[in-house]
Amino acid sequence: MRKIKVCLDAGHIGPTYNQSPVVKTYYESAMVWALHLKLKAALEKRGFEVKTTRAAIDTSMEVYARGAAAKGCDVFLSLHSNACGTESVDYPVVYRAYDNKEGADALALKLAQKIGQLMGTRQAGRTATRKNNAGGEYYGVLRGARAAGVPVYLLLEHSFHTNTAAAKWLSLDANLAKLAEAEAELLAEHFKVTAQPGTQTPIMGRAQATAQQMALYCRSKNAAPQLSGCTLEMLAQTFLTEGEAEGVRGDVAFAQSLHETGYFKFGGIVQPQQNNFAGIGALNGSAEGQAASFPSMFIGVRAQIQHLKAYASTSPLCKPCVDPRFALVTRGCAPYVEWLGAADNPTGKGWAVPGEGYGESVLAMLRGILAQSVPQAAQPAAPAVPDWQRAGLETLAAAGVINSPDYWAGKLSQNITVGELFGILGNLVTGTLA
To answer: What is the percentage of the chain residues whose pLDDT exceeds 70?
Structure first.
């Protein structure tokens, strides 16, 4: 079955556009950026195919072009919060096609009403249309989406940020998560999309790769890794051991270290002697060596495992904390490898910032590791058995001293035990067959 394609647009450029006059910490652009990432994840979880109009919050893009970017999609949603000069005005409104194309009003009204119920707005949610002087769509994003042939296009105003209660409600990350889930569920019901099994890759769990596979893959990309005081095999095994101790996939952590260090070529901010395999503390613009350093390979690996656990789980550490930035992480904000890049994470947080595609880069290396075929150790060939020994077996069998020649033929190249020797000699004396 063809997937329904949705294009999401975070309404404004930059992190500080459209400040609320009543809640000074609220900016419309920051809210809708966070919301559209959460909505993307919620839709993908339900089986939609989702694209966004921009890769980063400060990427400039003209409004008509944002709507036109939805070409080939089934739905275009532009996310906003409204504003007016009266503080008491408090209701969501969803703008839809002026001619109710594809019966969009029904979906728009459901969305507006659900948003109002969740936010507890003073007035109920409603739909609206607006034309320009030429008789077309007033809003540039909707005009662009219509011109691109998108069947359903909507502009969602999540009430008014000129209302104190609304602006405060929209400032809470947990509330945005509720909005994303509710809006995704309504879209799934409307388009009859069935939830698909999750395909994301958990960071927590047991490793699937072996240390041999990890080392083989690294050497296939860099025959001479720059490591300080350890072999590649020791390093790979340490990732597995430390990962198992904290419940983190050590093979995922090793793949991340390959990405961060360029297969242990280093050459960037972090140097080999720092035993820092994941760029912990290396910030954009830092000078060479200006990052965390660890006294040994073991401690460096442990710090990386702990830092990953901070992102992937809210469980306490099992070993004393050696990660200098552990307390700076919002615990549990990135349980999946795919969410390690902030741009790909519905919470807007992540190991890498903006980090678009960071998680997929790590996964590509993990797939390369798992694809490695470990050579099997050659089995020693059985030593050749001289003809005179085989002839002796046949003579004893013919004389009736041995009546199980096949059993003894398999042992001709092996050492005979004292018990077996006494058994054969006893047979000669008593005539009992072996």
So the answer is: 92
Instruction: Please tell me whether residues 91 and 180 are part of one structural domain.
Output: yes
Which residue is it, tokens 């005179």? 388
Distance (Å, whole) CA 402 – CA 394: 9
What are the tokens at 273? 């002697």
CA distance 412 to 428: 19
Model pLDDT for residues 235-270, shown as the tens digit of each residue: 999 999 999 999 999 999 999 999 999 999 998 888
For 199-211, what is each residue's pLDDT tens digit?
A: 689 999 999 999 9
Q: What's the CATH number where 23 sits?
A: 3.40.630.40
Chain Cα centroid distance, residue 270:
24
Whether 408 shows a pLDDT value over 80: the answer reads no
Helices (H), 317-404: 358-370, 387-399
CA dist., res. 180 & res. 79, Å (int): 11
pTM of the predicted protein model: 0.52
Residue 179, pLDDT above cutoff 80? yes
The reply to whether 183 and 220 lie within a common domain is: no
**48 and 120 in a common domain:** yes
Half-sphere exposure of 165 (CA within 13 A, CB side): 13
Number of domains in the chain: 3
Confidence category of residue 398, pLDDT binned at 50, 70, 90: confident
Taking alpha carbons only, the member of 118, 91, 266 closest to residue 184 is 118
Output the CA angle 40-44-49, nearest 5 degrees.
95
Three-state SS letters, 259-325: HHHCCCCCCCCCCHHHCCCCCCCCCCCCCCCCCCCCCCHHHHHHHHHHHHHHHHCCCCCCCCCCCCC
User: What residues contact residue 21 under an 8 Å CB cut-off, 6+ apart?
Assistant: 162
